[in-house]
Design brief:
The protein has 2 domains: 78 residues, no CATH class; 102 residues, Cation efflux protein, cytoplasmic domain (Alpha-Beta Plaits, 2-Layer Sandwich), CATH 3.30.70.1350. The chain has 6 helices and 6 strands; from the N terminus they run H-H-H-H-E-E-H-E-E-H-E-E. The chain is 51% helix and 21% strand. It starts with a helix and ends with a strand. Strand 5 and strand 6 form a beta hairpin. By secondary structure, it is α+β, with helices and mostly antiparallel strands. This is Alkaline shock response membrane anchor protein AmaP. Keywords: Membrane, Transmembrane, Transmembrane helix. It comes from Micromonospora reichwaldensis.
Length: 193
């Protein structure tokens, strides 16, 4: 999922708001905030009286706000559940007058995984190219042996495989996310320099 940070932030804020509301309700019902609140009915308050006095316009507005929130929630859910689009071809251009050269994204991922898989201590690797043909992004996931030297493998991947990719695409600033897992558990996640 590509919206992990946004998802975590939104769920954290929502969880904290619901926790605060639940805590306030429990405290109000147990005399902690005063006995006058514990004995009152839920709808016996100034807000409920105001809503009762203005129910002609309030409920249609509340319905519109609820509909907008539902549309935003649906958009967020689609963004979280829909995988990023994979780039089919990557455009490589030295000069506009020279024409357009394309590289198949699968050929790039095959080349990088073949190189990384040949490194000592690496079990398997997997690469994906995302984004547009003119603005590609790369994610590489590497699973190492349990006894592998993670720092050495990461340095070798950065100095060799990632340098080769950036050189081949003529993009020294190509965004690459490198995930390194030890055996079956995740060890580190880093965006190489």
């Amino acid at each position: 999922m590509h919206a992990d940070r946004t998802t975590r932030a939104l769920l954290t804020v929502l969880g904290m708001a619901l926790l605060a509301a639940g805590t306030a309700g429990i405290l109000a019902g147990t005399d902690v905030l005063g006995h006058h609140l514990a004995d009152r009915h839920l709808t016996d308050n100034p807000i409920a009286r105001y809503l009762g006095d203005n129910n002609v316009w309030f409920w249609p507005v509340a319905a519109l706000v609820g509909l907008a929130a539902a549309i935003l929630a649906l958009r967020w859910l689609i963004a979280v559940l829909t995988p990023r689009s994979r780039a089919a071809d990557i455009t490589i251009t030295s000069a506009p007058s020279a024409g357009c050269t394309s590289l198949d994204a699968n050929a790039l991922t095959d080349a990088v995984t073949t190189e990384i898989n040949s490194y000592r201590g690496v079990d398997t690797s997997h690469a994906k190219v995302y984004g547009s043909p003119t603005d590609p992004r790369l994610t590489i996931t590497v699973r190492t042996e349990d006894s592998a030297n993670i720092a050495a493998i990461r340095d070798r991947i950065e100095s060799n495989a990632l340098a080769h990719i950036r050189q081949a695409l003529e993009r020294p600033d190509l965004p690459i996310i490198l995930n390194i897992n030890i055996g079956d558990r995740q060890s580190s996640r880093a965006a190489p320099r």
